[in-house]
Amino acid sequence: MSASQDVLKPRFAQHIDIHCPDDRAYWAGHFGVSGDELRSAVKLVGSRVSTVAAHLGRQAA
Fold first, then answer.
1. pLDDT attached to residue 58
2. Spatial CA neighbour of 8 closest among 60, 59, 21
3. Of residues 57, 8, 6, the one with CA closest to residue 31
4. Of the candidates 1, 8, 46, 52, which lies 20 to 30 Å from 16 by C-alpha distance?
């Protein structure tokens, strides 16, 4: 089983729950950033996946 399969799917498809370790790990892996980078992005632009993706220059789910 690969590392990406070990991470649970996020609880919400459109928002990142930055306080949930599983969600944080999933979205950090999805966007290819560290947990700290993801936390900073959410702090700057909010928790909507599409907004965070645009801020990071990545594709949304």
1. 83
2. 21
3. 57
4. 1
| Span 6-61, pLDDT tens digits | 557 777 789 999 999 999 999 999 999 999 999 999 999 999 999 999 999 987 76
Q: How far apart are CA 40 and CA 27, in angstroms?
A: 13
Grouping H, G, I as helix, E, B as strand and the rest as coil, residue 54 is helix
43 contact partners, CB below 8 Å, separation of at least 6: none
- CB-CB contact of 48 with 14 (8 Å): yes
Angstrom CA distances, 10 to 17, 20, 37, 45, stand at 8, 9, 18, 19
Identify whether the C-beta of residue 37 lies closer than 8 Å to the C-beta of residue 47: no
**pLDDT given at position 52:** 96
